[in-house]
Structure formats: C-alpha cells, structure tokens
Amino acid sequence: MYAFSRSVNSMHSEDIKTLMKQSSGSGLISFAGGMPNNDLFPIHQMDEIYNSLTDDLKKLCFQYGPTSGYPPLIASLNKLLKRKGLPVSTNKILVTTGSLQAISIITQEFVNEGDLILTENPCFVGALSIFETYGAKMVSVPIDKDGIDIEILKDTLAKLEKKPKFLYVTPTFHNPAGITYTDERRSALMQVLSGTGIILIEDDAYGDLYFDEKDSAGIKAMKSYENYDVEVIYTGSFSKILGPGFRLGYMLASPEIHEKAESIKQALDACTSNFMQILANEFLSKGHIEPYLNFLRKEYAERKTILQDSLMRHMPDEISWNEPKGGFYIWLKLPSEMRSSDIFKECLNKGVVFVTGRTFDPHNAKDDRLRLSFSNMPKADIEKGTRILAEVIRESL
C-alpha cells in the first residue's frame, strides 16, 4: 500500500478522467467534449507560418524560453488585451501552459490547506479539481441567468468565520451554464467585494467566441472596471481558439502577484513551450486572429442553432434551458426529482453521452442538470443525439 498524499484524492479529478474518456469514445454521439472540433483548427495557416520562419526562429522553437513567456508573444498579448480595455500598463502578463495552469499557480500562491475559497455553483470542473488538490475548503454560491446571486453572496460572506482567499468566476459564456453576467450583475459583484480584500479570479476562456457582434458590445471584463477597490486576476486561453494541444494560456495580474506567480511557474515547468508560443505570436502579429475568430464564431453559432432548434423540437415541456450567446454549452434543467446520472446511464446504452450536473457541483451533490456541448461533435449528429436524449428523458418522467 503506497502512502499517497491527500492531494491525489480529488473527486473532481476522477470526474475529469471519466469525462475525457466519454469525450473520445468511438461510435458514440458525444455532447461531452468541451473542446473545439478537429476540422476547425488552422492547420494550413500553421504550416505556412512554420515554413516561413527563419532558421534562427526555428531553432528558438526547440529551446527553453523565459519563465514569464516569449517576449514578442507578451507584446502581442498586451496589444490584444489593450484593445479589450484591460489595464495592461499597470499589470503584467504571465504566459502559462494552458489557463488551467494559471488557475493552479494562483491557487498555489494564495491557498494553504484548509483555507476558504468561493466558487460559483455550478463551476468549471477543472478549477474544482485544482482547489481540491491544494486542500481548499470550497464555499459555493449559486448563479442564475444573469450571474452570481448577489444576495446569497452577501449572506454567505456575512456568515463566514474567516475571509475567503478569493472568488473564482467565469462571467462570460460560462462553463457549464452557458450564461453571461449582465453589466449590472458584474458591477454589483465588484461592489460587494470592494474593500473586503477578497481577490477575484476572472476566467475568460470563451470571451472571444460570441455568436453575434451586438451581443459582445456590452461585455466588459471586470479586470477593466475602475473605481472599485478589488484585486482582479484575469486569465485567458488559446485552447478554445487555436486548439487545446497548444497548451497556451495567460494571466494578467498586478506586478506583486505576477512576481510570485512567476517563481511558482519556474518550479513547475521552467517555461511554456517556446514552439507553441512562437507559432501563436506569428498568428497574432500577422493579423490572422480576427479573421479566424470570425470563422469560428459563424461555425459555433451554426452548431448552437442546430442544437437549440433540436431541443425546441424534441424536449418535453418539463425541461428548460437558457439559450447561450457564445461559448460551447447549453445547460439543461431537469425536474427536481430526476437525476442526470440516471439519464446518462440510459443514454449511454443508446450511444449518446453528455456530462452530468453533479460533475460541476463543488460538493458533488446537485444532479438535476446536464451539460450539452455543441462545439466538438459533427453537425449531422446533433439532431439525432438530441432526439435520443429527449426520448430517454420522456421515458423517465
């Protein structure tokens, strides 16, 4: 019997292993994979970019780089984030091996075993597994269609015996709920946190993947909000754009937080792949990113519409959901007496998989929801998969 540490006993880490297996199962119609479709990757552009590099740059691709990130990529990210209104002049970027590493670094930077942190409920399962691994005690606050429930957040804070280290949120095209915080809810959240010393981690993995230009106009990162005494750490990712295999993310934080985060990253992996950073920087600096994003937005909008229309056609009246304005997900609400885990077992027998609601509950309990991802599956399978799911749900009512 090995003397494993407590950190290996994360329930949500086991959920992630199961999820990855479900996402790639052959012969299945899978709504499980929260990842881009392989056919959408810019492989030909990347071929051209690599082949056009000088020999010196190609050699650099294979070398170690600065822990903080490849300097030209940091410069390109600064320009990108400045256009989004983020305060790059007073903050510093750390390039990370996926945004999940950014969340891990932040957690390691601030959390000792037994410390309190606040999360949404539901919450991104990858973040939950990190928080569990570092021994954090999670306190969750529910979200509704407009964002985190402010009154419950206030009540929760008033009842806590010690101050949470941070609150982790995904305010734009939420994973798994698909919602987007309204500006009013974002402002109210900043007001509640102002002066408390509670850090806000703003995870923006999906913010560029809106379906309609008009829906993006009112979306403003909370990191860019002024006149609030709140420390906000902003994280972003290329995983949902260029591809998860790039393992490229980043965090934007104050210089003091950045300095400690850089030391932690150095101990973790020394640096993120120079190869991928150089390719990503060439993609950005040569002006490919916006045309490619426009292509992705149209693709995912089409997939969302197929799923939305299929749900409207086939789902019983007892099932509800909010139509997302961006991202990868639709979050179905079942009748309270129904368990998505039971629905999953029946659907698996009929060749359809999704992710159960319990997976995204910080406490592994609430199971009357299920997440459908439309990003990874072939368009032709969406209608058939929805019909099978609806039949199983109808039989269980």
Shape: globular
Number of strands: 13
Number of domains: 2
Q: Using the CA coordinates, give the radius of gyration.
A: 21 Å
CATH architecture annotation name of the largest domain: 3-Layer(aba) Sandwich
Pattern of helices and strands:
HEHHHEHEHEEHEHEHEEHHHEHEEEH
Short description:
The chain has 14 helices and 13 strands. The chain has 397 residues and is of the alpha/beta class. Helix 5 packs across helix 10.
Write the layout of secondary structure elements.
Elements: H1 11-23, E1 29-30, H2 43-52, H3 55-61, H4 71-83, E2 92-96, H5 99-110, E3 116-121, H6 125-133, E4 137-144, E5 147-148, H7 150-159, E6 166-169, H8 183-193, E7 199-203, H9 213-216, E8 232-237, E9 249-253, H10 255-269, H11 274-285, H12 289-314, E10 329-333, H13 340-349, E11 352-353, E12 355-356, E13 369-373, H14 379-396
Parallel strand pairs: 1-11, 3-4, 3-6, 6-7, 7-8
Antiparallel strand pairs: 2-9, 4-5, 8-9, 10-13, 12-13
